[in-house]
User: What shape does this take?
Amino acid sequence: MNSASSNLTNNATAASGAVSPTAGTPATPAAVPASSVPVPVASVNTTVAATPAVNASPTFSPLYQQIKALITQSLQSGEWKPGELIPSEVELAGRFKVSQGTVRKAIDELAAENLVMRRQGKGTFVSTHHEARAHFRFLRLVPDEGVPHYPESKFIEVKRVRAPADVARLMDLKSGDAVIFIKRVQYFDGVPTIVEELWLPGLIFKGLTAERLVEYKGPMYGLFETEFGTRMIRASEQIRAVCADAGAAQLLNIDLGTPLLSSERVSFTYGDKPVELRRGLYLTSRHHYQNELS
Amino acid sequence: MNSASSNLTNNATAASGAVSPTAGTPATPAAVPASSVPVPVASVNTTVAATPAVNASPTFSPLYQQIKALITQSLQSGEWKPGELIPSEVELAGRFKVSQGTVRKAIDELAAENLVMRRQGKGTFVSTHHEARAHFRFLRLVPDEGVPHYPESKFIEVKRVRAPADVARLMDLKSGDAVIFIKRVQYFDGVPTIVEELWLPGLIFKGLTAERLVEYKGPMYGLFETEFGTRMIRASEQIRAVCADAGAAQLLNIDLGTPLLSSERVSFTYGDKPVELRRGLYLTSRHHYQNELS
DNA sequence: AAGTGGTCTAGACCACTTT
DNA sequence: AAGTGGTCTAGACCACTTC
Assistant: This one.
């Protein structure tokens, strides 16, 4: 009988029990007033109430992971926009009915994944691609000598097309779905160094035109984030060495057959959803691809 | 008067004060018996007593960073060897006279840097290159199709030489210092795919011969770790596209001029000390260099 | 049952930023 | 002074592994 509510394996319940200086009522040990017990958004063994679909099965996940998911949802939904301040740890703890430490651990992971940035004394901010330090997160090509700086873009082509089979497969679309195709050349100090082709889902990037790309100053990912509400948060890249074909040779002003670094990159937004395919050819005679292994 | 010891900015002191249910002696609030106060290895604003050299200046560093440094020293000194179990968090907390939470945070970071591996219920182990999961930490070349597996090695040359200027510079040696030079070809499914040259400091790798390399089965880093007490913990890599020269073409059985991926990699051991220079040429017609950006 | 890491809470204080 | 994140402690309980 006193185990009436003990099947709640929620850690928070146990912890609240530790606050039990209210244990002056030995007669009804199980009769804890519901109102005095903090009600976390979820128990350890169940999914967060607000979580839509997906996890109907008994999913084991620590509280802080559930909080992390909730915060991520707010990021995804645009409740807090890139560059903005999110609520303080104390406030979030209150909202989710958990301790500050738990919120802290959730935010720690989000910061490690570059979704948010902490600044002591100021607060926690939503990461944005409109920042010097974010500019080279996905562009690893740096000059052999001198300081890295952002290249200039010249757009060769921007059009709406139907996705070829290989593109569709990589972007989780159906073959023939509408996509935006972009081709551009990038210059470092006036030297053409990168030629790349991009594919973006037409549905999300409706209204993306050559004009908007040209007039926009700054990294393309900044434009995507601000104008299309789509933020790239990670990418997977495959690199090869290839020979320059006629097209690349002309655009990069190099000899046919010059070795180029080929990169095929798929970028993902929240929920591991692929939202960009990028195929680039890098001239590596005065630049190199820098990678840190750990 | 009761602030007699408040100029001690050590957090531990403050926390110990919180244990003050011993506050039955209001007459002498500042007279806390020294023996009852845990004496951390260091205060927040000073360097750990055991730390040799380097930080004589007033160095600000959180306790857990100091603990992390102490643990790293024990790893470096070989007190706990690769693959071995390190003392439990509780034990380390006792040794360093800090709370388990502080040790925990220190180990969290070491685990994030792949220096140790935690296993719930078992303990924390020193990372080792003798493990399946470690094998591809530094080798990012994976087959376009099929499951990655470790290549076979064929050694072309192993000799003691004097370090050329460029090699010496990258490895923090003096030009002319003794180094071990290794040249080998690596095969995937019998297909020659990688030709690479390695330079290792002669002082550290004294006694490294072709025989020992050939007879040793498994990753070279495993051999280095076990036989020479030198563990690679991170590396910095520069990648380019180049054309196969005569030597590479012959070893890889390809046409002269075939595009190859060129990698120059410097590997570091504890204390960010460079201990290996590796220059590789990768054939990327059936393999690619895989990189995750985040 | 005992020991390990993993989670969660609560409360203190510190360092930094802004008002 | 007030608010934020950053550090540190203490203690509880959970999940997993081993004896």
Remarks:
- The first strand of chain A starts at residue 85 and ends at 86.
